[in-house]
Fold this sequence. Notes:
By secondary structure, the chain is α+β, with helices and mostly antiparallel strands. It is built from six helices and twelve strands. It has a four-stranded mixed beta sheet. The protein has a four-stranded mixed beta sheet with strand order 8-7-9-12. It is globular. About 4% of the residues have low confidence.
Amino acid sequence: MSAPQFMRSQFSDLFGSSMLPALEEIFWSELEQHPMRREQLFKTVNTTSDIYQSSEMHDMPLFSTVAEGTDYSFSRPNQGANKTFSIVKYGLGFSISEEAVDDGKFDFISDAVKKMAKSARESQEISAMNIFNNAFTSETTADGQYVFDTDHTLPSGLTFRNKPSTASDLSPSALDEALVDFETQFIGDSGIIYKSSPKILLVHPTLKRYAMELIGSELKADTADNNMNSLKGEGLVVVSSPHLTDTDAWFLLGDKSQTGFRIINRSSLQTKGSGEDVGFINDSIYYKSKYRETLGVIHPYAAYGNAGA
């Protein structure tokens, strides 16, 4: 076993004996102070295995006329692309010397637990935002294309895009173009247009206030004309994250039940503590936290990205 990282000689004036119940209370109370943005953006599904497999199914053909007394034409949807997700384990722990507990170093122990809870939340947020950070260059959907691309191809040969042909900074015209694409571009294999409504405008904090002006002003932004701001009627909500690495990039997302963004949960965040019975060699108390999950994108529908100019 490794030597304890929390040593009595480093701190001096706290109290307590058995710390584990108190550590649990502190950990979960601290978590409540850090709500997660990712829950607004990703749909969570649970699995009981170390992998999660998703299979798409394509649309059926459009209806055709049926003459009186003639047979119906029967069809079945074709299977689409498959994607397999592998579960990953995340964890962190620290150890406390038994003397530190006995001699009452509670404030410092409490602070360590709070920082571990904060680290857990931050780790989960970073993993989620990295999906967007890599969505133009490495993160793919089940069709093998980048999450945001100009040539998502269906078996029929039809294609659709969920990013513009030329990247552009957030502006009234760029947002309007994205909204039009949201209504017209998302098609199925038979040409059916998916009726998806954008709900969230995701940006870096440097764009947050400008984004709020674009969708919240009574009059059109960035112009001296007193035109009505039609973007206000779209009902968008601005969500920002400092973990987006490109400050110019911005994203439109539909309801998480419509997008392909997934948190595949195998084991939710949990904690575990052990006393001196397992620290027989060095009289240490151990405390750790872990979770098992993976994040990814199944399909590109109801999500639109612009990398910015």
